[in-house]
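Supplementary Note 2. Why include the ligand at all?

Several targets in our set were suspected to adopt different conformations when bound, so apo predictions alone were not considered sufficient. For every target with a known small-molecule partner we therefore ran a joint prediction. The input for adenosine-5'-diphosphate is given below.
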Amino acid sequence: MSTMTAPELHPDLQNFLSKGPHQLLIGGKRQDAASGRSFEAFNPATGEAIAKVSEGAAEDVDRAVKAARAALSGPWGKMTPAERERVLHKLADLVEKNAEALAQLESLNNGKTIREAKSGDVPLSVALLRYYGGWPTKIHGETTPVSVPYYPGAKFLHYTVREPIGVVGAIIPWNFPLLMAVERLAPVLACGNTIVLKPAEQTPLSALRLGELCLEAGVPEGVVNVVPGFGPTAGAALAAHPDVDKITFTGSTETGREIVKASAGNLKKLSLELGGKSPNIVFADADLEAAAKGMFMGIFYNQGQTCSAGSRVFVERSKFDELVNALAEKAKTIRQGPGLDPKTHMGPLVSQEQKDRVLKYIEHGKTEGAKLLAGGEAAPGKGYFVKPTVFSDVKDSMKIAREEIFGPVVAVMPFDNVEEVVTRANDTPFGLVAGVWTKDIKKAHRLTQQLKAGVVWVNCYQFVDAAAPWGGYKQSGYGREKGQYAIEEYTQVKSVWVDLN
Ligand code: ADP
Ligand code: MG
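The joint prediction is reproduced in token form.
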């Protein structure tokens, strides 16, 4: 563990933190929770509390939904598409202007490295706002050449219109707190909806700051409401609320199932981005240096806390020892420390709970007989640090090869031929992403067709973009975020008939 050379927190961030307790944002006003309760947000690098946050629950969610419903028919509903674009671009500029303070806040509350927050989370958030900032004037329906076979000589004008869905509830996880919030907010606003955002209880701060920036950007009151709180209370109330039209959720498959059940009451629409246990497949004919980097980034980016983690690495047998040993050696050199320290390569996990969970999986790996090549234990210190961990001699049936760990733990396995590796790669209830490393383009494209995953990366890994759709096959969820596919998620189609007979 490196000792922290503590950088001064940005004055805007100091100012934000000093304003606590951080209240809910409902109808454009900061408000206490109805219960008067609050909870603490922590710095995972030290385990110390950094802020007090109002704890929203059912009554607050209800107030927020009412505000969001009312805002649909207020100034927001009357804005032209061009005016909505201007608001989104203003918000993009504000996020960009506050990039340094926001990156520090992400690092402070989530534990991620400032490097990754600055190169990933914040610029991608800005890019999403700019991308969706261009959409409002381009969301249109079509005219349809209808025939109506049972109506001889039919003459109709038929057209479709894309309308907002209405009130969207967003329940998001703690691994990319700002990015996940923006990924929902941007298309939700582009399509003219309103939103009630429930950030994860571990990481409520950047969503609250984003809510403030929305008001500054001219988003009318009540359009963006932020209600921090816990999953079984605030989250469950939002998922079950009879006046919420759609829930967009990212999180565990287990919680996704709860959300599906809760949505049944009013049959609200859902998009779900759930867990993964993704295969990253390296053939002997690959650019091995690039593949080694891809294996490393694939599992260790964001402390392994990505739904797209390449947590099952398959290496063709002739190169297996070479690559697995290189990965283990590189894992041992990772400099762990507080995310805010610019020298840190890997920060802490988000919480004590997550640390315990990951350590438990490591114990399973050991007792089930996998061979530990690196890590395998907590790192010393008060924070929630787990050493980057590499297992080889992993069997497909082992827990560490089947369940999502959501931490810096990788299972590396050899394979002998294409058919075998495709079968093994697909032998999982998940289907979020997959990686393929080879210089043989036929093989690469055959695999992109055969792998059951919503995203396939060829000779690269962990790439995302505002314009590229993101979502899973199988139990990794349904619906797509990002790109024009999200426009479909946040609008509904009306079919209009005009009789010209
Ligand atoms: P984890 O357990 O790793 O935190 P979850 O999928 O449970 O992952 O959490 C992701 C998000 O879902 C968080 O915002 C959390 O508060 C919320 N959540 C958890 N349980 C529920 C639930 N029963 N209903 C609605 N939201 C929930
Ligand atoms: Mg949970």
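Residues 70 and 222 are 7 Å apart (CA to CA). Residues 231, 252, 255 surround magnesium ion (ligand 2) (CB under 6 Å). Comparable summaries for the other entries are listed in the accompanying table.
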